[in-house]
Design goal:
231 residues; alpha/beta; Rossmann fold; six-stranded mixed sheet; 34% helix; globular
Length: 231
């Protein structure tokens, strides 16, 4: 289980997160929602170790992450699919996937078959450069690279941003499959409410760096969530 407890996060003098708490459990999807600039990406960076917190705690499987660097969090089973994908454009699809080997023991450095089962287009483009793929294909590649690390916590920052509807459906099906395996917790940042509503087991809604709605899908009014994220 991931537990974020009362964290504050600053960029210089600007406070991005104020006493934020959330959680993510194995076999469930926690959706983090909110308008632009409310702290969603800052929360993801805090979880994966890209930005230090000034107070509060983040624990994963009972271990306080503290100031653990990102590469140690990756070795602890935390994988990140960043906003904007951040694949390596001059490397091939295969080489991009193999970059996920960095945090694995030598004996586990293989690409799982499920990467190609979830995203068959990657198998057909192994020799293509990442930069030659469409935006949607690059997003599938970024998720596939994360899955290569065999994560127990998968963190995705707006994976549907700028993606064509058919691939959004593919991503949704992939997340449903991964949840159904019951071996990982998933944290999903989204702006598109309908996509999040169909997947969420737990909601965390941010506004101006603070949690304004938090709870399970059974206790949270989805229309209240929609109202908070409407532009």
């Amino acid at each position: 289980m991931l537990k974020v407890d009362e964290i504050d996060l600053f960029y210089g003098a600007a406070q991005a997160l104020r006493g934020v708490s959330t959680k993510a459990e194995i076999g469930e999807i926690t959706c983090v929602l909110g308008r632009n600039g409310v702290g969603k990406t800052s929360l993801m960076r805090a979880i994966v170790g890209q930005q230090p917190i000034s107070s509060g705690t983040i624990t994963w499987e009972g271990k306080d992450l503290g100031r653990m660097p990102p590469y140690d969090r990756a070795r602890a089973g935390i994988a990140f699919v960043p906003q904007g994908r951040e694949i390596f454009p001059l490397l091939t699809v295969e080489e991009n996937l193999q970059s996920g080997f960095a945090c694995l023991p030598r004996g586990e450095r293989t690409i799982p078959d499920e990467v190609f089962e979830l995203f068959p287009v990657l198998a057909d483009m192994m020799r293509r450069r990442g930069g030659d793929l469409s935006g949607g294909q690059q997003q599938q590649l970024a998720i596939g690279r994360a899955l290569v690390t065999r994560p127990r916590l998968l963190v995705l920052d707006e994976p549907t941003e700028g993606i064509q509807p058919s691939i959004i459906k593919d991503i949704g099906r992939a997340l449903e499959y991964l949840r159904g395996k019951g071996t990982m917790a998933i944290v999903l940042v989204e702006q598109y409410f309908d996509f999040a509503r169909d997947l969420a087991d737990h909601y965390t809604v941010l506004d101006r760096g603070e949690v304004v709605i938090e709870g399970s899908k059974d206790t949270v009014d989805p229309e209240a969530v929609r109202a908070k994220i409407a532009v």
